[in-house]
Amino acid sequence: MNGAVELPLGEPELAFRAAGDTHVRRSVLPSGIRVLSEQVPGSRSATIGFWVAVGSRDEHPAESGNPATFGSTHFLEHLLFKGTETRSALDIAVSFDAVGGEHNAVTAKEYTCYYAKVQDRDLPMAIEVLADMFTSSVLDPDDFESERRVILEELAMAGDDPADVANERFFEAVLGTHPLARPIGGDPETIGVATRDAVLEHYRASYRPRDLVVTAAGAVDHDALVAGLSAALETAGWELSETAAPVDRRPAELALVDGRSALTVVERPGEQVNLVLGVPGLVATDERRAVLSVLNTVFGGGMSSRLFQQVRERRGLAYAVYSFAPGYSDAGVFGMYAGCAPKNAATVAALMRTELERLAHHGVTDDELSRAIGYLGGASALALEDSDTRMSRLGRAELALGEFADLDEALRRVGRVTADDVRALAGELADRPFSLVAVGPVDEHAFRSIVDQPDTRPDVA
Amino acid sequence: MNGAVELPLGEPELAFRAAGDTHVRRSVLPSGIRVLSEQVPGSRSATIGFWVAVGSRDEHPAESGNPATFGSTHFLEHLLFKGTETRSALDIAVSFDAVGGEHNAVTAKEYTCYYAKVQDRDLPMAIEVLADMFTSSVLDPDDFESERRVILEELAMAGDDPADVANERFFEAVLGTHPLARPIGGDPETIGVATRDAVLEHYRASYRPRDLVVTAAGAVDHDALVAGLSAALETAGWELSETAAPVDRRPAELALVDGRSALTVVERPGEQVNLVLGVPGLVATDERRAVLSVLNTVFGGGMSSRLFQQVRERRGLAYAVYSFAPGYSDAGVFGMYAGCAPKNAATVAALMRTELERLAHHGVTDDELSRAIGYLGGASALALEDSDTRMSRLGRAELALGEFADLDEALRRVGRVTADDVRALAGELADRPFSLVAVGPVDEHAFRSIVDQPDTRPDVA
Fold it and tell me: Which residues form the Peptidase M16 N-terminal domain (chains A, B) (predicted)?
């Protein structure tokens, strides 16, 4: 089989051809565990990830009584490295360090993923250790307090990064009260009041067999992966004989974002103003994702893009300038970033907004369209050389998209995008409520004329 | 041939076996151009770099009359993207963007490298465009002024990153008046007074055939590379019939660093204090580089390292904590980094210094030694999957080391390291003048007891 394939949840196994010569297989175990693999011929290493579809958007205020309080999903992710019934934190670290493997985790807005990249011979070890961490973390009370301090340092580090701050505030500005608007790690206050009992309850409720998705790419044999994973989970104490269906995928309906224009200025010392501007975007499963990829490439995706040329090459107003367009299950954002001198901040912000309007009115040239299509094809081919990228694509296919599009099919969709499609989408985006965030030595009066009737959000920083 | 091979400068060609099944070849063209390639069977992409052994250390104050003024090497690197006799800045960007290639450059303390990563079919294009940029940049006066503003923004961005600031100040603290101590990009003042005439003169003096080293790895055929490169350079206007020997490698004698202890505190607002502590290290060609790799791995190289365990795992005092040990032709540094709460800064600094002294007195365990050896082997094997890494290793071999050690030989050297070697080197490092840099909301009194008789450098930030 070829092209895009709906992944039928609950179906025992499905095999289909994927990018290049690789072979993607998917199994659903009786316990509800899903396993997806992509074997890359000739590869001598593998990347494996253990995923759950739980992220910061699934969290609640402490007073709600829900154990998944703000920041607790990221807190839990940290704790899984602190030890199990049979492995100390040092044991876990030594397992990967002794073979030079990479080993980390990421908490996102809609998922959490624990992953490792190792040489082929070390894949059984990686499966065993990740399975143990995933199933058997002890969440020791002393470790809980120590890790609370580590997370507060992580938040402080991000707080000292003005681009990080601007990005977080941008999601809040555009998505308002939507759960995707909240920062992933919580804040010092919510981390300060998190309790071990609640995080433990969150762990038990969210890390069940039916929640688990394992994806692997590179030097991986699917049958051996399924067998090794099952054995490792059972050794770690999981009872896999109970039958269950995997959890349902998160509903993919577009939520109503409370579409107001917002102006957020976080005034603080520094040499630059970090600007993030933009509008609500598209959901991850929107059929116009390919159009948006082309639009984002032409607009702010490389050194030949409109933003780079207008802001940096022609005017020398910024060093870093680009656009971005992440999509989630029921919301998305389309944003532009630039870091610039305070005296130029209003000019740069106005210029970026004008460029979006110009794209909406005049569309893209044929040259730009074909260049963007070439860009997306070439960049994807290079990215797929890494097993990390393939492992992530499988997880995203299973958790967010419900289909796996091989490279050929993905590029066919991009190749069908027309200049009219791009202009229509740009027009739609340019008409949405426009928000602006500025972090640095600047005050909000500079931007009043750029954001229409803004809902100025209080600066809580 | 196998193992480490002295690269005889001026010898027409040398072939030897490299990591895995790859094949490394080196040619010296009559004009003095050096070409090194590593063909990786089965690879569908390639990374190519154009190098010169000119970096920030080769710069001088404006009043010296030398055209390579502080920051001008990095300035020149930016200008090479701005256009040639036959290609505009947009043309250059479009060439790579249209095929989804990666395309960038790096200015370092001892070299500058322009590179591209592309699919195999696009390698001839990459050679042509890079050759044109390297030989035929016009350094247009208007572009010069516009790019001056871009570089000032780049410096401002780095100035807003407290870890960047701490790292730059650390080199100044440890290396004092040595040319390697200076920051790579210059500062706003030196960039402000740079002139187009001087940068043009610097370009003409430093980018001659005898300066050029081209390295490529991945899907690359050596003979085709040499032929394509020669043709591209001649098309761009270079006269290659003149015979010349390559420039001599930079002398690798250890310079006398003015070994004083220094305490540098850059007091500024923020949530964390960024600490960098350490001592003068080893030169790049020191025969104890393998010992230092093992030492650095045990001490601060991974989650099982001493620093990670003592500072983060046991005490929760930092999120990011690690050590580093870069070596240059005639100097090096050994440093430790941590970002922590202001109230813990003195504790963390003292703890890190104590850990170095503990390593000096008690050495490493057999477990730690064998784990570090496993770490270096595994991490190298994973890193060599990327043609980027292989391309960089070839450049470093030619410019800095004068030999190319294949993976097997490199690991043999690491495998011969003993616990006594590590302890002896740790003892030597711990006895060297110790410097400390802190950037954040803290004052110098906190650290007086940690640095012995410090030479407090003025805060010029």
Answer: 34-186
